[in-house]
Design a protein that fits this description.
The protein is about 45% helix and about 10% strand. It has 11 helices and 5 strands. α2 crosses α3, α4 crosses α7 and α4 packs antiparallel against α8.
Length: about 250
């Protein structure tokens, strides 16, 4: 099961899906409140995305699964692991790992709010924006170092997804007010955490501090030199190998 990041959709996994689908049945839902995903009718709370993702597993007949998630999706994957729904977790730059007292997460949330404002105004020109190398570099500068191989249609879809995330404001306000908490003591499955040293959205190692020092110090840690926030876009073959290698262990 693949879980995408905040403001994204399931299609962020398109470049790794062929490799994963050769040996696994893959479920890649769009998270609740995101463009194309189910609406959040009960209001935003700490467990709302995990609740919806768990229902998606139930509907697909997955009692447990090997989970992979990026950014917010990585955090949700770990929440599901704490519920006993994971056989393994590969978390790519999971959100929520700032050290206690580190207020820089507020800057990240404000940046994402600003990104959505820009995306909503530029969405009608999405195809034109990604039609040039300069536009594609601008569209990917916070998530990937390598972008030339990413199809323009996928980047246009991402821009529209940012604009269409209906629950964005509620999620940002909830995170600003409540922060992030993970019941890591209940996670019993193997966990691999993957982080790029060139991550501009959740910088290594500061954004990983609580995972490393408190929640998941004994996880299998993989650091990717010169890779950005979304390895599944930046280095898709390597990302697929990291997921498959851990899920097969």
């Amino acid at each position: 099961m693949l879980l995408h990041g905040f403001l994204d959709t399931w299609r962020v996994w398109e470049l790794v899906l062929p490799a994963l689908e050769r040996s696994h049945e893959v479920l890649a839902p769009t998270l609740a409140g995101h463009a194309g995903g189910p609406p959040i009718e009960e209001g935003v709370h700490a467990d709302v995305l995990a609740d919806h993702a768990e229902r998606a597993m139930d509907d697909a007949g997955f009692e447990t699964a090997h989970l992979a998630g990026n950014s917010l999706g990585g955090f949700v994957a770990l929440q599901l692991a704490a519920r006993g729904r994971a056989r393994s977790v590969t978390a790519l730059a999971p959100a929520g790992g700032w050290a206690l007292g580190d207020e820089s997460y507020r800057d990240v949330l404000r940046l994402q709010a600003a990104m959505r404002v820009v995306a909503r105004s530029s969405a009608p020109q999405a195809d034109a924006i990604v039609s040039t190398p300069e536009g594609r570099r601008r569209a990917t500068e916070l998530i990937a170092v390598n972008f030339e191989h990413i199809p323009p249609a996928l980047l246009a879809h991402q821009l529209l997804g940012v604009a269409g995330c209906t629950a964005a404001n509620g999620m940002i306000q909830h995170a600003l007010a409540e922060g992030f908490e993970l019941d890591a003591a209940r996670i019993e499955c193997p966990v691999r955490v993957v982080w790029g040293t060139a991550d501009r959205l959740l910088p290594w190692p500061s954004a990983a501090a609580r995972f490393r020092e408190d929640w998941l110090p004994h996880a299998d840690w993989v650091v990717l030199d010169g890779v950005g926030h979304a390895p599944q876009l930046d280095v898709p073959l390597e990302a697929a190998e990291l997921i498959l290698g851990f899920a097969s262990g």
